[in-house]
Amino acid sequence: MIYLIVIPMLLAVLLIPFVSGKKSFLISSVAAAISLALSSFFFFEYFNRPAIESVTWFTSGSIKFTLSMSASNLTLFMAILVSFISLLVLVFSNFYMRDEPQRRYYSEMSLFIFSMLGLVLSNSLLLFYVFWELVGVTSYLLIGFWYGREAPASAGKKALLLTRIGDIAFFAALVVLFVTLRTFSISTILADVSAIGPATLSIVASLLFIAVISKSAQFPFYTWLVDAMEGPTPVSALLHSATMVAAGAFLLVLMLPLFIEAGFGIVILSFGFFTAFLAALLALKEVHLKRILAYSTIESLSFMFIAAATANAGGAIFYLFTHAIFKSLLFFIAGALMVLFGSYDIYKLKSSKKNKGWLFVPAIIGFSSIAGLPPFMSFFAHLGVSANFTLADSLIFLLLSFLTALFSFRALFVAFGKGSGPRPIKNMYAYIPIIILSAISILGGVLLFYFSGVILINYSFDAFSVISVIASLLGVYVAFELFSRSRLPSAVSRSKAASVNLSKYGWDKIITAFGGSFMLFAVWIGRVDDAFIRLFSRLGEGFISLASASRAIENGDATAYVAAVLLGLVIIIAVAVVFV
Amino acid sequence: MVPLSYILFLSVVLFAIGVYGVLSRKNGFGMLISAEIIINAALLNFVGASASLSSLSGASYALIILVMAVLEAVVFVGMLIAYSKKTSSVLLSKLRRFRG
């Protein structure tokens, strides 16, 4: 019966081509609402009573290919989350995308929601892989929604090609697992993890890890997510913050016993910390609001990885949930600002000298959630992330908290600078999703105590939580000093002087110098980023010259082709005669 | 009963004629007919082997291949007609404009 959850979205995809543009919004959002209702119903139906439904797809000899879906607390909770966010994003789309081609947009969105729901419910890795690919393809279609312009078209291509590396790795892992265990069922694989030899296990784990980091846009694949911000904003809210990129983290959590068995915990942890650090620094240098949010998404995904690597799958899932809520909220705000002011550049938003109206309130909620400040839900999610930390992890995490608060409040203070003249948004499709998500972001913290019964979450409230909040507040303060009171230019010059003679300066100056030195470091990281991009474009150029060299073979001469076939035949016969 | 070696020799000769035709003809229909000669050379192999081994499986394969060859000819002629409408010629050398 679980498959019923995905059916409405599939029906929506099939129906939309036959209706008028205006109705396509209605059809897809009604389908998403039905999916939401069904997944909530099944969530209570199967609560704490996990079940697996499978059907034999085809048999080949003694090997059965089964497709199965699993109903457990985790999968059904993910289904609720995906359909809920999808519904809100569809509602927001009715405001943001009202002048765009409706049918194409809504059918692509419905196809995406269908694949994402299928992905979270799959218990068969084969089915999971099918949906994983569908998610990748719809992401490509939606990033390149405005394919007439150069930037979105190439951003879509980049996203597809970079995630393709992970897809191939995933497929290879699938083949290796199937050859070893003769099954695709995730539950069976996890039960038999100890039966896999150590060498095979590390191969499978590394392949799956490549798949996971490419889908979740971690180092070194993160660049596609930043470019993907060329797509429509509701698409960014759904695909590139809440669901699609979270598919990687979800796969990591699903296969966590395998990764732990292979001893990959430390690898995931170091990748997570490194990516988080990198993303926070890059976000500090960015001026494009959506790109800042993209870097923040990369960082949040790293937090999920870190939580999973410290054997706290529940913490990762709760952070995934929290992140989906507040990041969609922030993307909605960014979209509303785009409609009002026609720009994503935070400095242009600042200089537009117009009041952002009530949008300031949800923006504070959203950016405080990035920084993990209490009393918002994100604070409780951070409790979950940091529950199993060792001392070294905690120290790095403190630095990350500081940096995260710094870049998020930089965006807030700059984008929402002072101004006058109210221009509120009156469209209810815009403000209803923002209000709902803000409410959940404020009040959702209590859900942590409820969810610790649903999925096993480790969380701890101790001195470390207080210290990390203090680190975040310090970041907020530095951001306020640097960006709200515009002390950045003097801070950068001071940070150079400060390194010569630190003791001469007062507390205030040290704080600004500290922030400024991070800015310098961020610029440096940006250069490394550029170097990477150049390296990869060299690689691409190499392939292009190889391709143009091989053009000569394709000369369009039918007789030459036949002659080549015959030559090949002769060679094969000669080889057969000589060697066989 | 004709010895198997005679049949194989005939088949090789037919095959060579077919290959020569495919390589030398510029005309699409000429190439199709030459390709059919090649297929028939192969069919002759099957039938000859079937007769000399007194087993029916070779002959039945030959029947299947015959049907395939007919279908292939239909597809080829259809494509050639569409092609000649575009280029008003059946010379395959005009395909050169599809070079990479």
Structure report:
The complex is a heterodimer of chains A (580) and B (100). Chain A is mainly alpha-helical and 580 residues long. Chain A has a domain at 266-298 and 319-486. Chain A is 74% helix and 3% strand. Chain A contains 25 helices and two strands. Chain A has a two-stranded antiparallel ribbon. The longest helix of chain A has 43 residues, at 507-549. Chain A starts with 6 loop residues before the first helix and ends with a helix. The mean pLDDT of chain A is 83. Chain B has 100 residues and is an all-alpha fold. Chain B has one domain (4-90): Helix Hairpins. Chain B is elongated, with a radius of gyration of 17 Å. Chain B starts with a helix and ends in a 13-residue tail after the last helix. The chains are: A mainly alpha (580), B mainly alpha (100).
Helix proportion of chain B: over 70%
Question: What is the 3D form of chain B?
Answer: elongated
**Helix/strand-derived class of chain B?**
mainly alpha
**Biggest interface, which chains?**
A-B, 11 and 13 residues
Termini Cα gap of chain B: 53 Å
